Amino acid sequence: MDDFRVRFGRHVAELRRTRKLTQEQLATRTGVAERTIRRIELGENAPGFDLLPKLAMALRVSVRELFDF
To answer: What pTM was computed for the model?
Structure first.
C-alpha cells in the first residue's frame, strides 16, 4: 500500500508542477493545509474520498486521471 501512496503522490506533484502551481496554491484551491498537500506528494498521506474531486478540479483533470500513473 505504501508504494501506491508514493506513486500517487509523485503523480500529483508532477501534475501540480506541470500546471505551474506551488503546493501553497494547490492547498488554497483544494481548501486544505499546505502540509496536507506536501504529505500527499511525499506518499505519507492518502487523500480521503472527499478531497479527490477537489484535487482533480484544482489540477484540471478527472478523478480517474489522478490514478493514471
So the answer is: 0.92
